[in-house]
Write a sequence for this structure.
């Protein structure tokens, strides 16, 4: 069983800004950061 990954606020900001700016598509970000769609759509705002 793998350990649960934790994402820091700086990483969350970087991913969110890349999507908003249109630098990369969501699919490109998934491949680059080894994320699944639900992992970054569920980033808690306050965390």
């Amino acid at each position: 069983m793998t350990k649960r990954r934790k994402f820091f606020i700086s990483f969350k900001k970087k991913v969110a800004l890349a999507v908003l700016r249109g630098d990369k598509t969501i699919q490109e970000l998934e491949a680059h950061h080894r994320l699944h769609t639900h992992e970054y759509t569920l980033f808690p705002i306050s965390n």
